[in-house]
Specification:
Helices cover 25% and strands 16% of the residues. It is of the alpha+beta class. The chain has a 6-stranded antiparallel β-sheet with strand order 12-13-14-19-16-17. The chain has a 4-stranded parallel β-sheet with strand order 1-7-8-9, with helices on one face. α9 (271-280) packs parallel to α13 (369-379). One of its GO terms (molecular function) is alpha-1,4-glucosidase activity.
Length: 476
């Protein structure tokens, strides 16, 4: 697979999950048996004796509900699992674990992998135990009254520990050293952290160490809502650009496997709008599979639900907890199982709309989500979109504008009319030094214009929820 991908010019990034292993992993089995080499590979604790009975070491709660501690009959101790009980957490304070993880990275680098998407990195370290080997309780949160819910506690000891970014710095050095020794292009680290923005910025690196090239920017996926106005968009985007360390690369995420799909969260009539925004902002755009063809959530019954985040609770409220609706099979065609599988059954049911909404059909529709997405991808090869400066401004409550400009090259403007009323904008109200005329280069299916149509920068009409990309007629 790696050989063929190189021939096609496709780079493969591996999903790397360092926080935990399976409880069926050989390392965990040996650790549970107190093998001298592996006994401290995981977080173990004998528990507390309360009123003559043994109980969990503290009040820590799993992301997937309930106690984060599970009793192991063989070892006669509890082990920590911040996620499912079949996913015991590694002990990253053990140097042997750190080196084992380093060797995993080297193994895949030798196979030809071009980088790693690092899962849930902010969970890697917990607070160090005290002199007696105990861990403190986390303080109560006021988000919920359900003690089994992850939101019941304020997680100050189990995520975002100060050692965690430095772990990423070590891995970046490992990747850079591998390149020095073996040649080739830069290997990439993408790290998943749902942390406050000031902490996310630490993952880029510091004055003495390089970090991840792409610490995931979850600002828009976390803090944009269906009713967010253009000012809200501009604030979130500019906050990232302003806080990002000099010389680093921005990245943008609107959809992923943990959230409802873009078309469901914001409306199917805004799918092209979000793809235009994502793909004309500077830096790296990160697209969750299916968003390029505008897939939407699929209702999954309780009986068909497989997400542990939902299954670990009661049927009541499972739809709120489940991530399965955004994880259904990719809709390739109108064939059996949407062309995803020729089996009798798929892991999750296929969307009932796959006959009409699929990649094969969209290839033949000029302004389908797929073809708009392809046009945007092609546009990203333009020098202005690769190297140009960026201004993001709200023209009004309804309209957001993104200006990309580069000396002696074309200027591009992305316009989004977020809501349901027709709008007229003068580009000069928000941006300076614009030429008098632009042309349409990418249009959503809501547009009545055609590609190549000319428009004055002083008056641009936007239909409800219309989004367009404009290019200056002349280089400026």
């Amino acid at each position: 697979m790696m050989k063929k991908s190189k021939e096609l010019g496709v780079r493969i990034i591996l999903d790397f999950v360092p926080n935990h292993s399976s409880d069926e992993c050989e390392w965990f089995i040996k650790s549970a048996a107190r093998d001298p080499e592996y006994k401290d590979y995981y977080i173990w604790h004998p528990g507390k004796i309360v009123n003559g009975s043994r109980t969990v070491p503290n009040n820590w709660v799993s992301v997937f509900r309930g106690s984060a501690w599970e009793w192991h009959e063989g070892r006669q101790e509890y082990y920590l699992h911040q996620f499912h009980k079949k996913q015991p957490d590694f002990n990253f304070r053990n140097p042997k674990v750190r080196e084992a993880m380093n060797e995993i990275l080297r193994f895949w680098l030798r196979k030809g992998i071009d980088g790693f998407r690092v899962d849930a990195i902010y969970h890697a370290f917990e607070v160090a135990p005290d002199a007696e080997g105990n861990y403190p309780d986390e303080p109560r949160n006021d988000w919920t009254d359900d003690p089994d819910d992850y939101g019941y506690l304020h997680h100050i000891y189990t995520v975002d520990q100060p050692e965690t970014p430095h772990l990423v710095y070590e891995w970046r050095k490992l990747l850079d050293d591998f390149r020095k020794e073996n040649g080739g292009d830069e290997r990439i680290l993408m790290v998943e952290t749902w942390s406050p923005i000031n902490i996310v910025m630490e993952y880029y690196g510091n004055a003495t160490a390089e970090g991840a090239q792409i610490p995931f920017n979850f600002q828009m996926i976390s803090y944009l809502w269906n009713d967010s106005d253009a000012y809200h968009y501009a604030i979130l985007i500019n906050e990232w650009l302003n806080m990002m360390p000099a010389g680093r690369t921005a990245n943008w995420v609107v959809g992923n496997h943990d959230k409802n799909r873009v078309g469901t969260r914001f409306g199917a009539d805004r799918i092209d709008m979000f793809n235009m925004l994502l793909l004309t902002l500077p830096g790296c755009s990160i697209t969750y599979n299916g968003e390029e063809i505008g897939m939407t959530d699929v209702w999954i019954s309780w009986e068909e639900t497989v997400d542990p985040q939902a299954c670990n609770g009661h049927e009541d409220g499972y739809e709120y907890r489940s991530r399965d609706p955004a994880r259904t099979p990719f809709q390739w065609s109108d064939e059996k199982n949407s062309g995803f599988s020729d089996g009798d059954k798929t892991w999750l049911p296929v969307s009932p709309n796959y006959k009409m909404e699929n990649l094969k059909r969209q290839r033949g529709i000029a302004r389908s989500h797929l073809n708009v997405f392809k046009e945007l991808q092609n546009l990203r090869h333009e020098e202005t979109l690769r190297e140009g400066s960026t201004e993001v401004k709200a023209f009004s409550h309804d309209v957001l504008g993104v200006k990309r400009s580069l000396a002696n090259d074309y200027t591009y403007i992305t316009l989004m009319n977020i809501f349901d009323s027709q709008q007229v904008v003068n580009l000069n109200d928000a941006f300076k030094n614009l030429p008098a005329e632009f042309e349409y280069v990418v249009l959503s299916d809501k547009s009545i214009r055609r590609k190549g149509d000319k428009v004055a920068s002083s008056r641009i009409e936007l239909l409800p929820k219309e989004a367009v990309v404009l290019r200056s007629i002349v280089k400026v």
